[in-house]
Amino acid sequence: MALSSLSHAWLGAAPDAAGKAAKLSPLSLVLGSSGVVLAVLLLLVFASTAVWVIWLLKSAQIRRLRKAQHAFEQAAETVTTASGLIELAIQHRDSPGGRVVMELGKRHHQPSLSVDLLSSVAKRAIQDEQQRASKLMPSLSSIASASPFIGLFGTVWGIMNAFLVIGVEKSASLPVVAPAIGEALIATAVGLVAAIPATIGYNYVDTRIGDLLGELEASAEGWVDILARDPGGPSSAVPLVRSSASAGFPGA
């Protein structure tokens, strides 16, 4: 009889323990979170998803730009005339270098053409390319910097709920405070899950953008020199006004 009672007691306790364990699982804590903490968790999940989407989009964009830029630079290695360079740029208008040369070509027939003027136009065109390549980067940076604080806010709110539960239940036992503390800690964890990939992704993409712009600035020196040596093309009678201060590409 005693053995049977112990067996029934153990069998009854096992489902209760399993039920409590299931109730305190991370998923159940998330789904059972209070309104504010749940809103924080949903916001962080959305931010974490956005990080990976932005990272993939930017990586694909930079890879495409670098491929187009390298193709244009290889084709431009054998070009020695302004008209040939401009025609090549039109054919490679999808590349950053092609767009820079096309901007330079708009000023090519301008009277009193100077190296300083072409360099300024090239710098402005490169700035446009930087803005184009840097789209969505502020969003990635904002997620990286704000996510830990958003998660911390959820943690603070969850701990406050834990103290309120203690006050209502008049008990600080683990079964009483565990759910509130659990959802509070999950908010911190999800905040880090969003922030860490965002920081790594931002640094990775920003480095590749910097490499692309560095190559573009270096190549722009040669393009400016080609256009400066052949102002207005073969039919132009406008002399080149070369400034003594323009020995190189300013700001490159």
Can you characterise this structure?
There is one protein chain. By secondary structure, the chain is an all-alpha fold. It has one domain (34-229). 79% of the residues lie in helices and 0% in strands. It has 8 helices and no strands. It has helices at 2-23, 26-31, 35-76, 82-91, 96-106, 115-133, 137-169, 174-229. The longest helix is centred in the C-terminal third of the chain and has 56 residues, at 174-229. It is rod-shaped, with a radius of gyration of 31 Å.
**Helix segment tally:** 8
Count the domains.
1
How many strand segments? 0
What's the Cα radius of gyration?
Answer: 31 Å
- The poorly predicted ranges are 1-22, 233-252
* Rounded average pLDDT: 78
Distance between the termini: 92 Å
Proportion of helical residues: over 70%
SSE arrangement, N to C? HHHHHHHH
Strand percent estimate? under 5%
Q: Describe the global form.
A: rod-shaped
Main sheet attributes: strand count, strand direction, barrel closure: none
Oligomer state of the chains in this structure:
single chain
Label the structural class.
mainly alpha
Short description:
The protein contains 8 helices and no strands. It is mainly α.
